[in-house]
Write a structure and sequence with these properties.
The complex is a heterodimer.
Chain A: H1 10-24, H2 28-41, H3 46-58, H4 62-75, H5 80-92, H6 96-109, H7 114-126, H8 130-143, H9 148-160, H10 164-177, H11 186-203, H12 206-215, H13 223-237, H14 240-253, H15 258-267, H16 278-294, H17 299-303, H18 305-308, H19 311-328, H20 333-337, H21 344-364, H22 379-394, H23 398-411, H24 417-428, H25 432-444, H26 450-462, H27 466-474, H28 482-488, H29 492-504, H30 508-528, H31 530-539, H32 542-553, H33 559-577, H34 586-598, H35 601-604
Helix pairs in contact in A: 1-2, 1-3, 2-3, 3-4, 3-5, 4-5, 5-6, 6-7, 7-8, 8-9, 9-10, 10-11, 11-12, 11-13, 12-13, 13-14, 13-15, 14-15, 19-21, 21-22, 22-23, 22-24, 23-24, 24-25, 25-26, 26-27, 26-29, 29-30, 29-33, 30-33
Chain B: E1 13-15, H1 22-32, H2 39-46, E2 53-57, E3 60-71, E4 77-86, H3 95-109, E5 113-121, H4 125-133, E6 143-148, E7 155-163
Parallel strand pairs in B: 4-5
Antiparallel strand pairs in B: 1-2, 2-3, 3-4, 5-7, 6-7
The chains are: A mainly alpha, B alpha+beta.
């Protein structure tokens, strides 16, 4: 085919432009009409055929679409339009590798086509072809150096490629091209400066990062992020006094942010999470007494010392800490304190404390550690019982735990949290059926509470009562169409729990279906990042964008994915091991021969 | 009780029961009363809003009052208080009084209601004192029914009637709106 055959006369050439416009404005029917008009005269015009195919693809006519695009390509192999369209088709099918190949062919024919380069760069970053991405972004920058996004994207490409130096230099060069920042772009500019500091920090150039922050201090809008970065950087450069000052300023803004507390503690010379010396403990204790004076309302300031205090100091602190929780009837007290149980000594102190409270409250209406004449309200006793039940359950003493929770329910049978804890205790004691019944009793006391509904569902599944579970969860799904609705909402805890229940009951097919649904959600989540490649660049949310990319790279380490993957493997093995019905029918035999090969371990991977 | 403890009143708010949380109402009844109440009792009580109500202390229910509206041929109505109960750990703190006073206040605002009545088992000595403290005239009961069985085991009961217009709210029964 000669190229000359593919050149349209001006009337048709104009029509072709229209097709493209119709496609871009989603007026597909008009696009098809225009294409047909050209094809009537020039039935072999490749680009028109391709555009018709692309339009058909958007009208959900996939097979026809591929047919037309391939025919177009056949007539005009040398057209970058045909290759680009072919790539777009693959892209819409999420077949990015094929799409990249098509774009590359298109670029071979038209190497400076900005649209194709941009599309290619999106696919490359989505597929994490980092060197390819860097190349494409470099080309785009050289073609259009006056576009801000091209500078930024090239810097990101180098950053992701671990060329920190280059990435930093690109941003600085870009800054050099600026002649003042318009007011409307002040936020974006500030973000760019923060991103530059982030790159420097990650490259280990801590002092340069600090310098960038100082220099940009009057241009950075996100002051909090800048301050947090300063604290971190000063810490890492060993300027502990400076870091301490910054963290104290941050605590002044929010005394309940645990990151600031961790920062402050490190700047005071202790490493949170490792053993501390008695001297360090004394330093921390003094610091927190001081913080408490300043921020008496902060829960964090009161809770954190419980981690490092020991012995009598711990006892006094924890007594005053729990008093408020008990008096206010805050049900989460145990989960708040449960991390302290790594220390047996602390667990023992808590046990003794709460036992004493529970035995003294009914007669005296006083907490044993509280001075003064104030009498406690009656619920303090029942909340203390509630704590003890969870305490004993945590320590594996089911009988005692049950005793306490039953006493609590007998005291005030209208507190629904009690039923959920009782369900947990029963389940851990090995009676999931009883657990489900108790949880359902709790659920029945507030039918408008979705959390209770989910809890009851979970326990029904643990007890392998899948039907009760389905009936329960259906109460909160739309129009009783629970299967689809739960899938659409990516309700993974349900799918995993239900899958595991089917596994236990050896219904491998059903289990497989649910676990695969979970895997699909993760594919969707990964797919969903596609839109952010261009969006984040435009909005200049660069730090967050890089964090998103990194999160996506570790996506499949997520708890739900792991659980579903293990479930899938077990389900496949279960199917493989399942004895075949020996009714002597031929179909059973053929089922064996069909199933066995497809279920070999090799095909799992 | 060996030592008389001075107990301060507990702050409560009101909650109108609905079909979503009627099981809480049932829990309160099964915990407090020895007789078992049928489904019909609760559907009837739920139809008598806002008179039927529960008392929330912090954020859970500790008491309930159930009522029923009885239409008279005159076009007026009588309000029958079928049950009033407070979970035992929360008694003696003014909660029952507040619930009853609230019902009386609502009845007073309702033009159609002239009288409120209820049954008290003859052997319930505490009840008279309680009613008196709630501003009820308890000099005499209208009649005594032998073996009264309305949703409960047979028991001899006095019937008390309180005129709505004569009732004056005692002190300290205001419920703070939250």
């Amino acid at each position: 085919m000669m190229k000359g055959d593919q050149v349209l006369p001006s009337k048709e050439a104009n029509l072709f432009k229209q097709i493209v416009k119709f496609y871009e404005t989603k007026q597909y029917k008009k696009g098809i009409k225009a294409a047909d008009q050209i094809l009537k005269k020039f039935p072999d015009h490749g680009e028109t055929l391709a555009m018709k195919g692309l339009t058909l693809n958007c009208m959900e006519k996939k097979e026809e679409a591929y047919e037309y695009v391939l025919r177009g390509l056949k007539y005009d192999m040398k057209s970058h339009v045909c290759w680009h369209v072919y790539g777009l088709l693959y892209r819409s099918d999420r077949d990015y590798r094929q799409a990249i190949k098509c774009y590359r062919n298109a670029l071979r024919l038209d190497k400076d086509n900005l649209q194709i380069l941009r599309d290619l760069s999106l696919l490359q970053i989505q597929m994490r072809d980092l060197s390819g991405f860097a190349e494409t972004r470099q080309q785009l920058l050289m073609l259009k150096p006056n576009n801000r996004n091209n500078w930024i994207a090239f810097a990101i490409a180098q950053h992701l490629h671990s060329s920190y130096d280059l990435a930093g230099k690109i941003l600085m060069a870009y800054e050099g091209t600026l002649e003042g920042v318009p007011v409307s772009e002040r936020y974006e500019h500030g973000e760019m400066l923060l991103y530059k500091a982030m790159i420097q920090e990650e490259s280990g150039a801590l002092n340069s990062a600090l310098e960038s922050l100082d220099k940009g201090s009057d241009q950075i809008i996100d002051v909090l992020a800048a301050k947090e970065a300063r604290g971190r950087l000063l810490q890492q450069t060993g300027n502990l006094t400076g870091a301490e000052a910054v963290y104290r300023e941050l605590l002044e803004m929010n005394p309940d942010n645990y990151n600031y507390h961790t920062g402050l503690q490190s700047s005071l010379g202790t490493d949170p999470g490792s053993e501390i010396t008695p001297d360090q403990r004394a330093t921390l204790q003094a610091a927190y007494e001081d913080l408490f004076e300043k921020y008496p309302k902060s829960t964090g300031v009161k809770r954190i010392p419980l981690n490092f205090l020991e012995g009598d100091h711990f006892k006094a602190a924890v007594q005053s800490y729990v008093t408020r929780f008990l008096q206010k009837g805050i049900p989460s007290l145990f989960s708040d304190l449960s991390s302290l149980y790594v220390s047996t000594a602390k667990a023992d102190i808590l046990e003794k404390m709460f036992e004493e409270a529970v035995s003294s409250l009914p007669s005296s209406d006083k907490l044993p550690w509280c001075q003064g004449e104030t009498l406690e309200e009656p619920a303090v006793y029942v909340w203390a019982l509630f704590y003890l039940a969870q305490h004993y359950n945590h320590r594996g003493a089911s009988t005692k735990a049950l005793e306490k929770i039953d006493a609590a329910i007998a005291h005030t049978p209208t507190i629904i949290d009690f039923y959920l804890v009782k369900a947990r205790i029963l389940n851990e004691a090995g009676d999931p059926k009883a657990a489900a019944i108790v949880a359902d009793e709790g659920r029945s006391m507030d039918l408008a509470d979705r959390y209770l509904n989910s809890e009851a569902t979970k326990w029904w599944l643990q007890a392998d009562q899948v039907e009760s579970a389905q009936d329960t969860i259906a109460l909160f799904t739309k129009d009783g169409d629970q299967g689809n609705n739960l899938h659409d909402m990516q309700c993974m805890w349900y799918e995993v729990e239900a899958g595991n229940s089917h596994l236990r009951c050896e219904r491998f097919g059903k289990a497989l279906k649910l676990f695969k649904a979970v895997a699909e959600h993760f594919a969707d989540i990964q797919e969903d990042q596609f839109d952010f490649h261009s969006y984040c660049l435009r909005k200049m949310t660069l730090r967050t964008y890089v964090k998103l990319l990194r999160m996506e790279e570790h996506l499949h380490g997520h708890r739900f994915y792991c659980m579903a993957a293990f479930g899938l493997v077990r389900a496949y093995i279960g199917i493989y091991d399942q004895p075949i019905a020996l009714e002597g029918s031929k179909s059973a035999v053929s089922a064996v021969s069909q199933r066995r090969p497809s279920a070999t371990p090799g095909s799992l991977l | 009780m060996a030592v008389e403890k001075k107990l301060s009143p507990l702050a409560i708010s009101l909650l109108q029961p609905s079909d979503k949380n009627v099981n809480v109402l049932k829990k309160i009844h099964s915990q407090i009363f020895s007789s078992s109440y049928q489904e019909k009792f609760f559907t009837d009580s739920l139809e008598c809003l806002p008179f039927t109500s529960m008392a929330l202390y912090s954020d859970f229910a500790v008491a309930a009052i159930c009522c029923r509206l009885e239409k008279l041929p005159s076009g007026k109505s009588t309000l029958y208080i079928s049950t009033l109960g407070v979970l035992s750990p929360y008694r003696g703190r003014g909660i029952g009084k507040k619930l009853l006073a609230n019902v009386m206040k609502l009845a007073k605002e309702d033009q159609k209601i002239d009288e409120v009545y209820f049954h008290v088992p003859v052997n319930n000595a505490e009840a008279t004192g309680f009613l008196k403290s709630c501003g009820f005239a308890v000099e005499g009961h209208r009649e005594t029914i032998q073996g009264y069985t309305d949703n409960c085991d047979p028991v001899d009961c006095h019937v008390y009637v309180q005129s709505v217009s004569d009732w004056v709210a005692p002190e300290g029964v205001e419920i703070e709106e939250i």
